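Collaborator request, handled under Task 6.
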Amino acid sequence: MSELPRLAVVGHTNAGKTSLLRTLTRDARFGEVSERPATTRHVEAVELMADGDAVLQLFDTPGMEDALGLADLMDELTGDGKPDGPELIERFLASPQARGRFEQEAKVLRQMRASDAGLYVIDARDPVLAKFREELAILSRCARPLLPVLNFVATPGHREAEWREMLARLGLHAVVAFDSVAPAIDGERRLFTALGTLIEAHRQTLARLTESRAAEALARVEAGRRMIAELLVDVAALRLTLDDESREQAVLVSLRDRVRTRERTLVASLLELYDFGRDQGPDEALPELAGRWEDDLFSAEALRAAGVRVGTGAAAGAAAGMGIDLVTGGLTLGAAAALGALAGGLWQTVSHYGERLGGKLRGYRQLSVDDAIVRLLALRSQRLLEALERRGHAAVERVSLAPTDESSWRDGTLPGALAEARIHPEWSAIGTGFEASAERSATIAELSGAIHVGRPPIKE
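C-alpha cells returned to the collaborator:
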C-alpha cells in the first residue's frame, strides 16, 4: 500500500458519496451532485491536506446499481472450488461481465482492492433492503476494512436506528453518522477517529489530519467573529455631519447606504471565509442577496421581527423607526449616557458632546446610527456565522438563518467596546477621516469575544 492512506468512497447510487466528499474537501464544485441515478461514472481522486501537506487520498467511485445481479454472477464464478473473497473478486474483474453489464461495479471493486479502507456511504433516509446487504457482502470480499457512514441523518424521517441494527447483524459495529449537508461540529473528528481504529498503520496520520482540521475550523470561527466586530465598530463609530438643513435627506440616505454596503461586504467576506459562493447566501435577511428585504435593515418591521426595541428618545421617534439617531449638541448628559457614551469615562463624554455642542452653535448637526440598528446587525451577522459553521459544502439550498440564543444582543447592555467606539468617529472605516490605530484593534479584539457561535470546534 502507499504511504499516503487511500480511502475508497463507495455505496449505492445516489447515497451521497460525492456530497460527502464535497463537505470533507470544503469544495462545493467537486464532482457532480444530482437526483439522477449514476451521476458519477468514473473514479475521481482528491487529497486532504494538513499544514500544507497531502495526508489522505479519497476516491469517489460510481454507485453500485445491481448488487443482486452481481451476487448471482459471483455464485456462478465460484464454481466447484472454494475461492476466498479476494480471489473471487479477481475472477469477476477478469470476466467479460466486468467490462459490460457490471462495468460500474467493477470500477468500485477495483478501487476497493487498491485502497487501504472504504467508506460505505448510506442514505439513512432509504429503507433497509436486501440489495444493500448484498452490496456489503460483495465489498467485504475485497478484504479491506469498511466503515459505514450514515448520511443525511439531519433530515426528518431518517432510519438511522434501522440501519445500525442491520449493520450490527453483519458484524459492522463501527458506524459513523455524518450528514454532508449539515454536519455536526465534531463530525469530522468522529469520522477520522473511527477510521484510525480500522487502519492502525495510519492512525497517527489521521490524528494529524483531525488536529489540523480542528485548528482550521477554530481559526475560521475566530476570523468570522473579528469580521463581525469590525462591522459593528465601523457602524457604531460612524458619524456624518449635517451642515445644511436642505441636505438632511441626502445625508440620511448616505448614512443608511454606507451601513447597508458595509453589511453586504461582511456577508461576502463570511461566505468567502467558509468557501461558499455568493449565490448561496441567505435568502431572507440580507439585502444584497434578496430583493424582498432590500430596505429591512432600517425598517421598524425588521426590528420588531428580531425582537429589537427602538429607542424612545425624541430623535429616534422623529426618525420614524428607521434607527437614525439625530444627535445634536443639545442632548443632555443623561441622553448621552443612554447611547452608552460613558464607557471612556465622564470627562470623555463631556468632551465628546461638548464638541457636538460647538458644532450646534456653528449651525450643524451630526448623525449616527441608533443602538437598535447596531443590535440588529449583530443579530443577523451572528446568525449567519452560526449557519455557515454548521453548513456542509454538499448543501444546495441557500443559507437558512435558524434562530439562536441571542438574548444578550437583543435585550442586554451592549458591550462597552461599542460605547468606546461611539466616541471615536475616526475608527469607522465607512466614515470620513478613518485612522487605523492600536486602540481600535484592541477594541475589536475585545468585542469579538462577545460574539458567540454555538459550541466551539473541538480541539484534539
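The cover message to the collaborator said: "Residues 284-296, 312-361, 455-460 have pLDDT under 50 and may be disordered. The radius of gyration is 29 Å. Please let us know whether this matches your experimental observations."
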